[in-house]
Amino acid sequence: MKEPIIKAIILAAGKGDRFENETPKQFVKLAGLPLITHTLKIFNNYPDIKEIIIVTLKEYIEKTWELVSLYGLNKVTKIVLGGATRQESSKIGIDCCGADTDFLLIHDSVRPFLSNFALKKMIEAVKKYKAVDMVIPSADTIVEVDKRNFIVNIPDRAKHRRGQTPQAFEYSLIKKAHEKAIKDNLSNFTDDCSLVLRLGHKVYTVNGEEQNIKITYPLDFHIADKLFQIKTVLPPAFNNDEYEKLKGKVFIILGGTSGIGLELSKKLKNFSKKVYPLSRKSVPSVDVTDFNSLNNIFREIWRKEKRIDYLINSAGVLLRRDVEFMSEAEWDFIYNTNIKGCFNVAKAIIPFLKEQHKGSIVFLGSSSYTRGRAGYSAYSSSKAALVNFSQALAEELSDFNIKVNVVSPSRVKTPLRYKNFGKEDPSTLLKPDRVADVIIKVLVSDITGSVFDII
Ligand code: CTP
Ligand code: MG
């Protein structure tokens, strides 16, 4: 039997009134990429999808083509102007599909967390049932109200679901459903399944996932930011593509001779012979508080390797002391190492990364950046400063294809910790090995300007 032709429509013609932002939400950058790009990648990478049609706003058609070419989204064949309502945009997309289409998935551009697993279930179900909705149970009670806000009914929660996208249809069926809606003068349905139901056709449901959120309100954006970070570092197991990206690459690890830096350098040496762990103890000695020592060694590595792919700065100092009893010299020592050190590292490496038009930097932060505690005024405030520093740097470098992120572990079993806290129950501490895995995942990801908390 011939393989059915499955296409996808990505709806991106909404203005995002509830999101209240100048740039429409589907084009706002999330984890370094315009939101719609994340969504498109899911469909582009899924083997069963043969073609993608994007419906968008007039002013964004050209920009969307640019994204398509920049990110190699080779399945996108058409980018067309949408309509005034979601239903109209959907209809426009459907009409663009062509008669060779067997099945069609319609998805919101603002749901960037759809999993391959959920997509697979949809495709299997649509072949069998011809119309399928993706739904999840509702944790909140659903309440029906009248125009004056009085409750008229509280339906049984167990029987109700929340509708997500994608929704999937046999092509001829969804085409017919939209044509009938137009004939009946209906134009404001926010959901394609309702139109199929109006034809008297059954619509099957498959279970979606809680993470498949729709970015609707400003708060959703913050949640999405965190979801991305979780998604990137979990599970810690690597896939083959990620391993491939490490092979033969040039790594510079500052603070690379002890603790997390040492663990990371041991791990990376399995993939590449070009790992440079540097510290005050290495030969030559490199000190992040000394710009020239950084500048010299980077130049030397550049001359030898003609490239620098990844840089990790894990050099940092921690000193527990109440403000009243801390000397100025101690304060300066912490700030010079933890924050000015990052400035020095960045300033020294940027010219090389810019020249090759790529690179990825990870600074090691600390979970203490979120809240200062007694005895940690200098340490935790320097780590909070590092977060803002990195976000600013990520923006400055994003046009040069250079990524900057912070990995912030909590309580890691390292000599630094032992020195300050003595013996602790090891089961409550993170293993440096796990932190090293997360750093590698972040280095090879597309994300920039993010903080990855490891707890
Ligand atoms: N959409 C569309 N054409 C429209 C309206 C919406 O393609 N005329 C798309 C949106 O771009 C979004 C999806 O449908 O990807 C879901 O819609 P929604 O979350 O409501 O987005 P907006 O309509 O943009 O937001 P709002 O309702 O807050 O204005
Ligand atoms: Mg809307």
Structure description:
The protein is an alpha/beta fold and 455 residues long. It is 40% helix and 18% strand. The chain contains 14 helices and 18 strands. It has helices at 35-45, 61-70, 86-95, 116-129, 171-183, 192-198, 218-233, 240-246, 259-268, 291-305, 328-356, 377-397, 415-421, 432-444, and strands spanning 6-12, 29-30, 33-34, 49-56, 76-81, 103-108, 131-137, 144-145, 151-153, 161-163, 167-170, 204-207, 251-254, 275-278, 310-313, 359-364, 402-409, 451-454. The strands form four sheets. Strands 1, 4, 5, 6, 7, 10, 11 and 12 form an eight-stranded mixed sheet that branches. Strands 14-13-15-16-17-18 form a six-stranded parallel sheet, sandwiched between helices. It is elongated. It starts with 5 loop residues before the first strand and ends with a strand. The model has no long low-confidence stretch (mean pLDDT 93).
